[in-house]
Recover the amino acids of this structure.
């Protein structure tokens, strides 16, 4: 069945200069990064900060040379800037409810030790904040200089830093010791070199463009009267509304503490020889089974028996034809969960399966953190190390939350019974098993500890530049007393008729 | 093994009692209905059970529809036994719930009277989908136990399987199961539902197409007229694109995602007019036939995560209820709907007031992802009190367990043995 059409006027060329740079790139060249959670004293302070930030913000237009700035807001931050609650309510329901909402916690697996009331930021027992400033720099010295500049400004305008999220200088491996960041979705209009790969429509990540259903993802639209200065782009759906969401995206940030020692201790304990001695090779092999890639990054589907550094960045594979039963890469391995590729029902191994997969992709932007970020001494990462997980999504529920619940933390993923993600999964009540399919019979590992815990997190909105300008000028441009905005029909009915099928 | 039934009991809430009943349901549901006062865990053959309220509302003509209380269960036949147990075992719970409804027998009323009252308040479904027809609760529990025993057997520390040939492993497992008196039943396939019931199903399977054949001349004339009228009606439809209120969405979410399954219930007003009434009736007639004779084993048109589902017309077809028990989150359930059975949903749901625009009954509709998801959430009814007999088993797990048992007997090729071992 053909996708329902979107009217012709939807311009599919991305307005790169209106999109914050984080959507286009992870700033791989800018190896130092720092994230500041801020809270403004009042609306003028929030506005003053935005005024200062706006000329500095990095857009998707051109790769930055030495530094990059981006900014994202929580619902509280949008309200602080003067956006009425009735408009804030038209953002995604997950965003307005917040990541620490108890109903979200069950979906996200933030239970027991990962529960929001333990969080150091973003939870009910930590101070609220308005947003996050993302700062990237080519080296630590530049970062330090820009941070000092930011701190002075924040003081001047009356904005408090609620928490500083430090990061480790960007490398290829994450704290468990595996190469990271190999598989990212290719995006129509954003990824420069798609090279025959499978591209996902930009609307999956950037609001106001066609998504994987060929539709415009729901986003805040305002009656034109609420934007008398015409700062906002017009709704590409043709409703005439002012589009507050266009060129924006939702940003997920989670501080995930990784128990690196615990992980390797478990792998060693589970692979001891009959005489009780450690078997270093078997230890790494089990860890690789859990991840689905070897430490070098080589995928188990292509290198089932031993690591092969030549395949370190290989991302050109599927599962259904080569490894349907998981004998090379276990069905429950981390990489099969975060991106099941062509294994999804109803017809695994086909394009239809990939199409289903396309609707649940995440654009990851995380950076690792650890003691050495502050230059602490010690051999290797200590107990407080992990990932500031970040991802961008046009639809939090269908993308990030779905992956977290239906794939990562689902003990029955892919026909399993009691296995959550061996690497990052929650072990709340269940999920303490890891099954390694093999001939003649599977090997079952039991009593898996939880290796990753959530220490903080929040949902943000990463607005487009025009939307930020609108927010900056809200008191001037906002016309009060117009009543509640109605949600506007995105696809004009008559157009649907004409272009059917 | 018995066949399964979708039982619905509904009664009008006594005037002024709705708020009190709602509060009672929430409190009782929070405590869990597996134990007293309902004790569903001790009612025989109950797979799932739930109690929930339809709030008072008005129909399209503004006529009031009073609040009503609904009990639904998916239970193994016979119905007679279940109704009796609702009085004998779950009596306190039923009194607490339906005691706030009109005409419920007085305290101390005789058992026979109470059972008769329940029977009088039964509501029939237009169609009931059963994941696997004839797989009773007892079988599901036994086969789960079988799998667990085999998992432990394979984990035996004193044996290294990796050197064994697949055939030898299977023979070893067969010997083990055959040698355990508590598992020996697994060496034989499960019994089928009763002969009488199967004969009735067979007659339905053949009888319906025959009857349609007889009606063919009439249908040939009527169908094109119906199609044109339907298309014209679709062009006049006004989809409802309102979002669910944050309060409603929050209440719904607060009952979801505690175990591997969730209950779903939604109610909607049928669009006005005879055309939609005939269409809905015809489609449900077709769904009833399809789920009884085609989609009766572990797969509903590509969706394998639904344990049970039913469509129940209410209030003389002014409203239709859809209720199901499914695996995973509502988000994944709705995505399955859109990606796999959008056409099937459109066929029935598009007769509901406000559904996203369809074309020729089957197209569009659910493919308007966001509008469809809002529509479902807006029509969804909170289910405060819900029971599941197997909270850790997905439909996929249950089917896998059944296949493990099936592979214990009979001749298998080498490839089939390897395939079977991969189920473990």
């Amino acid at each position: 069945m053909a996708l329902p059409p979107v009217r012709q006027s939807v311009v599919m060329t991305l307005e790169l200069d209106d999109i914050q740079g984080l959507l286009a790139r992870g700033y791989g060249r800018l190896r130092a990064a720092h994230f500041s959670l801020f809270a403004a004293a009042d609306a003028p302070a929030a506005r003053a900060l935005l005024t200062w930030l706006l000329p500095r913000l990095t857009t998707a237009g051109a790769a930055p040379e030495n530094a990059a700035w981006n900014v994202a807001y929580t619902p509280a931050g949008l309200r602080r800037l003067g956006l009425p609650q009735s408009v804030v309510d038209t953002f995604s329901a997950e965003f307005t409810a917040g990541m620490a909402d108890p109903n979200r916690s069950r979906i996200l697996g933030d239970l027991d030790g990962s529960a929001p009331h333990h969080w150091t930021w973003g939870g009910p027992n930590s101070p609220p904040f308005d947003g996050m400033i993302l700062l990237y720099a080519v080296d630590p010295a530049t970062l330090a200089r820009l941070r000092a500049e930011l701190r002075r400004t924040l003081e001047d305008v009356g904005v408090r830093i609620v928490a500083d999220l430090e990061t480790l200088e960007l490398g290829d491996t994450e704290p468990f010791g595996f190469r990271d960041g190999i598989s990212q979705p290719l995006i129509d209009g954003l990824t420069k070199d798609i090279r025959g790969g499978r591209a996902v429509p930009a609307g999956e990540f950037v609001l106001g463009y066609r998504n994987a259903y060929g539709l415009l993802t729901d986003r805040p639209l305002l009656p034109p009267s609420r934007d008398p200065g015409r700062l906002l782009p017009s709704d590409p759906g043709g409703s005439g509304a002012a589009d507050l969401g266009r060129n924006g995206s939702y940003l997920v940030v989670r501080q995930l503490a990784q128990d690196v020692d615990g992980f390797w201790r478990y792998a060693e304990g589970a692979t001891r020889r009959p005489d009780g001695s450690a078997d270093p090779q078997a230890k790494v092999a089990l860890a690789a089974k859990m991840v689905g890639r070897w430490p070098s990054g080589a995928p188990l589907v292509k290198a089932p028996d031993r690591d092969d550094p030549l395949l370190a960045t290989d991302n050109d594979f599927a599962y259904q034809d080569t490894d349907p039963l998981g004998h090379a890469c276990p069905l429950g391995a981390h990489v099969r969960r975060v991106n099941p590729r062509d294994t999804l029902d109803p017809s695994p191994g086909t394009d239809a399966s990939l199409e289903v997969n396309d609707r649940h992709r995440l654009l990851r932007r995380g950076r690792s953190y650890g003691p050495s970020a502050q230059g602490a001494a010690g051999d290797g990462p200590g107990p407080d190390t992990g990932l500031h997980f970040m991802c961008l999504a046009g639809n939090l529920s269908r993308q990030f939350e779905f992956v977290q619940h239906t794939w990562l933390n689902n003990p029955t993923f892919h026909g399993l019974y009691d296995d959550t993600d061996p690497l990052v999964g929650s072990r709340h009540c269940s999920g303490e098993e890891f099954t390694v399919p093999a001939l003649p019979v599977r090997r079952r590992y039991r009593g898996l500890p939880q290796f990753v815990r959530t220490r903080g997190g929040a949902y943000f909105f990463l607005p487009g530049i025009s939307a930020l300008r609108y927010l900056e000028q809200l008191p001037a441009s906002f016309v009060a007393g117009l009543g509640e905005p109605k949600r506007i029909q995105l696809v004009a009915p008559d157009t649907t008729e004409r272009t059917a099928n | 093994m018995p066949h399964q039934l979708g039982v619905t009991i509904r009664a009008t809430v006594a005037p002024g009692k709705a708020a009190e009943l709602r509060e009672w349901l929430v409190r009782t549901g929070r405590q869990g209905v597996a134990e007293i006062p309902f004790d569903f865990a001790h009612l025989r053959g109950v797979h799932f059970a739930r109690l929930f309220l339809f709030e008072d509302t008005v129909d399209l003509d503004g006529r009031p529809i009073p609040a009503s209380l609904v009990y639904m269960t998916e239970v193994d036949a016979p119905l007679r036994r279940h109704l009796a147990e609702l009085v004998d075992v779950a009596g306190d719970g039923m009194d607490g719930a339906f005691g706030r409804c009109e005409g419920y027998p007085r305290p101390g009323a005789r058992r026979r009277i109470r059972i008769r009252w329940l029977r009088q308040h039964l509501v029939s479904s237009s169609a009931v989908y059963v994941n696997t027809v004839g797989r009773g609760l007892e079988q599901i529990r036994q086969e789960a136990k079988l799998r667990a025993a085999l998992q432990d057997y394979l984990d035996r520390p004193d044996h290294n399987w990796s050197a064994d040939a697949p055939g030898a492993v299977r023979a070893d497992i067969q010997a083990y199961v055959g040698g355990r008196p508590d598992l020996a039943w697994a060496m034989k396939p499960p019994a089928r539902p009763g002969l009488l019931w199967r004969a009735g199903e067979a007659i339905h399977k053949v009888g319906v197409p025959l009857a349609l054949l007889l009606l063919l001349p009439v249908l040939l004339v009527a169908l094109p007229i119906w199609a044109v009228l339907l298309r014209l009606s679709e062009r006049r439809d006004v989809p409802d694109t309102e979002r669910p209120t944050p309060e409603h969405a929050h209440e719904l979410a607060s009952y979801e995602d505690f175990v591997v399954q969730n209950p779903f219930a939604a109610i909607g007003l049928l669009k006005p007019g005879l055309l939609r009434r005939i269409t809905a009736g015809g489609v449900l007639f077709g769904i009833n036939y399809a789920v009884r004779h085609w989609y009766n084993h572990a797969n509903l048109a590509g969706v394998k995560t639904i344990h049970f589902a039913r469509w129940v017309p209410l209030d003389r077809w002014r409203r239709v209820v859809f209720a199901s028990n499914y695996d995973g989150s509502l988000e994944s359930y709705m995505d399955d709907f859109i990606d796999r059975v959008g056409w099937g949903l459109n066929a029935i749901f598009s007769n509901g007031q406000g559904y996203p625009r369809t074309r020729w009954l089957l197209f569009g509709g659910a493919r308007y992802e966001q509008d469809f998801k809002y529509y479902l959430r807006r029509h969804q009814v909170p289910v405060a009190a819900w029971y599941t007999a197997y909270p850790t088993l997905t439909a996929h797990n249950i089917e896998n367990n059944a296949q493990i048992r099936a592979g214990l007997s009979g001749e298998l090729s080498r490839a089939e043995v390897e395939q079977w071992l991969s189920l473990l």
About this structure: The longest helix of chain B spans residues 195-236. The two ends of chain B are 24 Å apart (CA to CA).
